[in-house]
Amino acid sequence: LTLTSLSDAIFMNCRKLSNITFGTNVTNPGEVIIPNTITSIGKSAFFYCAMSKVVIPESVTSLGSGAFEQCVNLTYIQIPLTIEDLPTAIVQSCTKLEYIIFGENITNPYEVVIPDTIKTIGVNAFLSCPIKSVIFDSNSTLKVLNKNVFAYCANLSLVILPTSLETIDEHVFY
């Protein structure tokens, strides 16, 4: 398999698409395991698809805005530490999302631990997700929390912000 990128909106609005197999990389029902030949995933690539689990390999260094937005059955996403910029609406409205894993750092359900490798978080990144806690790595260099990043996260009860923050935009925790 020589595929190196997944284009913008490649599977957008495939509301019943829950399984994608790349080559011989067979997965369990509901799983999408991105092959390690992929280096970028485009804007809205999987917008409103039906998969429940996504694993993104370390080869991916770029994610487009809304890449997994409104994947309402998504319960697990593994994002590699090679991602420095979490794009706008990356998992917006993924209302069943239990696990947002960065690298191999397994967390508790509904807990997001933002690693120090993350330099920016786009607008609406986690909007309307069921997360309960957000913890930033103590070595974080994140300067800005953009508008609506954690807006409408109704279950959010714990936030530990990094000391590096200089700006918190409007409605971040609205």
Describe this structure in words.
With 174 residues, the protein is an all-beta fold. It is 0% helix and 22% strand. It is built from no helices and 14 strands. It starts with a strand and ends in a 6-residue tail after the last strand. The mean pLDDT is 94.
What's a concise summary of this model?
This protein is mostly beta strands and 174 residues long.
Keywords summarizing the entry:
single chain; 174 residues; mainly beta; four-stranded parallel β-sheet; three-stranded parallel β-sheet
Secondary-structure-based class equals: mainly beta
Spatial order of the strands forming the largest sheet = 2-4-6-8
Measured distance between first and last alpha carbons: 44 Å
CA radius of gyration:
15 Å
Instruction: Give the helix tally.
Output: 0
Shape: globular
Q: Provide the helix percentage.
A: under 10%
Average pLDDT score: 94
Topology order in helix (H) and strand (E) letters = EEEEEEEEEEEEEE
Q: In terms of per-residue confidence, which ranges show pLDDT below 50 for 5 or more consecutive residues?
A: none
Question: Layout of SSEs?
Answer:
Elements: E1 5-6, E2 31-33, E3 40-41, E4 53-55, E5 62-63, E6 76-79, E7 85-86, E8 99-102, E9 111-114, E10 120-121, E11 133-136, E12 144-145, E13 158-160, E14 167-168
Parallel strand pairs: 1-3, 2-4, 3-5, 4-6, 6-8, 7-10, 9-11, 11-13, 12-14
